[in-house]
Amino acid sequence: MVFVQIGYTLLYFITEASFNRGMNPHVYITYRNIVAGLAMLPFAYFLERKIRPKLTIALFLEIFILSLLGVGLTLNMYFASLTYTSPTFLASMVNTIASLTFVIAIVLRLEVLDLRKTRGVAKVLGTLVSLAGVMTMTLYKGSIVRNLWDPLMHLNGNTTVHENWLKGSILTVSSCITWSIWYIMQAFTLKRYPAQLSLTTWMSFVGAAQSFVFTVFVQHKPAAWTIGFNIDLWSTLYGGVVMSGLVIFIQLWCTEEKGPVFVTMFNPLSTILVAVLAYFIFGERLYMGSILGGVVVIVGLYLLLWGKEGDQEQTELKEQSSSRSEEQKDPKVLIFTSAGKDMKEEP
């Protein structure tokens, strides 16, 4: 998961440089997922031949919805918002996914909330604090933090495209909500389709098709589909092979092993890395509203995670108690031989 957050950190700046040069975000999503599908297909086909379940119509429809939530809809909104805000803002907003996932799980009755216990109160406080941080970043831009020195590197292209902060905020929040639903849904899908490489491949191809259909409606210029041997090509290859391929596979594996909350708890690491690189290396404009809101979101996130830690302890205790009760229901019967001296146990 640390590797995943480093990957996301580099992604923000590579894609921003590409978008600043004029590449369409929706074209980028389409190409990126085609590359991801082609890169993952050989590994999925050969490594999961024996464990891959049969693909039924119902299962394909589930993968279709999962692809829409994780790729087709979410990524298009997410990267479109980058043209209106900044990498630091996006990285901070991603931290709200853990809180949003918790709220949705409560609504769907997938999460137990006991306000009589301290950890239950911590869950609620953490969620409210995180949402307060989101509102701070969205509604309060604040003053610009002055750069201490000239940027060490420059992002190529037009740097004045961040023209509508409110529009970008709405797109980012919407993508975080659908992303949260995606994390919850993939935990259920993995139980019926426990082949992470194959699921990643399916989501890449189906998501690319969904994004293509959407892009055809919103982008009518054929020239937008042309990619030269420049940053557009490298951002597409990086996004496809590393992010939509390898990173999604790692997240699916971690979700199956540790659950969706474990996956989201590492998001603040990317926030810190992005803020440091954006401010000190690339000379990105940094606003006080983003700093204050980001700190509030991280505090709320770890309040929520502290409350969730108690759930894991309770689950382990329940499993231990259930195993003990099963052992008690299976007593040993003492059988004596006719001599009365030898004794043995028999279930």
From TrEMBL:
Localization terms from the record: Membrane
Domain of life: Eukaryota
Molecular-function GO terms, alphabetical: transmembrane transporter activity
Transmembrane segments: 29-47, 59-80, 92-112, 124-145, 165-185, 197-217, 237-254, 261-281, 287-305
Gene Ontology CC annotations of this record: membrane
NADP as UniProt keyword: no
Region (Disordered): 315-347
UniProt biased composition (Basic and acidic residues): 315-332
Similarity field: Belongs to the drug/metabolite transporter (DMT) superfamily. Plant drug/metabolite exporter (P-DME) (TC 2.A.7.4) family.
PANTHER family: WAT1-RELATED PROTEIN
Name recorded for this polypeptide: WAT1-related protein
Species name: Actinidia chinensis var. chinensis
